[in-house]
Amino acid sequence: MLTLTENAADAVRTIVSQTPDAPTAGLRIQGTSASTEGYALTLAPSPEQGDTVVETGEARVFLENVAAGELDDKVLDAQVTQEGVRFALALQQ
């Protein structure tokens, strides 16, 4: 299952805390690495039917079914820059 680094969990919490749906909201990942667009990250008020929910503390990430399968052995990390937050994926060790 996808895991989150401390930086990613902090970034997700910060982003989600700014929404009115914060108690149930999360970052949703959908799509596939096989497409030219790759994965799409959106702020979602709650998980959609069939989503896998990954929780690290109060940080919640919702994975669409295809994305969940592809990201099963990955770690989500985040870097905060002046331009905003940049998320990256790596293999779990």
TrEMBL record:
<dbReference type="InterPro" id="IPR035903">
    <property type="entry name" value="HesB-like_dom_sf"/>
</dbReference>
<protein>
    <submittedName>
        <fullName>Iron-sulfur cluster biosynthesis family protein</fullName>
    </submittedName>
</protein>
